[in-house]
Amino acid sequence: MLHQYYPQRARLAEIGGRAVMVGTVPVGTVTEYRGKRIIVEAWLPRECHAGRFDPRTRKWVSSFHGRGMFLAQARNLATGKRFRLSDTHLIERDPAPR
Q1: 84 and 23 in contact (C-beta within 8 Å)?
Q2: What is the C-alpha to C-alpha distance for residues 27 and 35, in angstroms, rounded to an integer?
Q3: Is residue 66 part of a domain?
Q4: Which of 82, 86, 91 is nearest to 38 (CA)?
Q5: What number of other Cβ atoms are within 10 A of residue 48's Cβ?
Q6: Looking at per-residue confidence, does 26 or 51 come out higher?
Q7: H-type alpha helices, the chain
């Protein structure tokens, strides 16, 4: 399984002999959201629009948060439709039985 490293909500896991912070919901987790079964496909950093000013181009540019505030890319198992979902919605749910 793939892990989300240094997330906002984390647990310690031993990987390669080192204790690292990994996400509480690994990629590939099948769970239920709003009565539908979904699978977590990826973790995406949130974009901060106009996050910083670039003095070279004299424009505001977007930046991405490297730690915390992640969005999960999920797929509905019944319809195959993909959507993005905040990590807080997934943490509140227990994984559904496979």
Answers
A1: no
A2: 20
A3: yes
A4: 82
A5: 13
A6: 26
A7: 87-91
The strand pairing partners of 33, in sequence order, are 36
Mean pLDDT for the stretch of residues 72-88: 90
How far apart CA 88 and CA 69 sit, in angstroms, is 9
- Coil, strand, or helix at residue 31? strand
Range 33-44 average pLDDT: 88
Letter for the amino acid at 32?
E
Range of the domain at 35: 10-91
Residue 3 falls inside a structural domain: no
In a domain, 97, yes or no: no
Read off φ and ψ for residue 55, nearest 5 degrees: -65, -25
Task: Please check whether residue 98 lies inside any domain of the structure.
Answer: no
CA torsion through residues 92, 3, 95, 43, sign = positive
Model confidence at 98: pLDDT above 50: no
Rounded distance, CA 47 to CA 97, Å?
Answer: 33
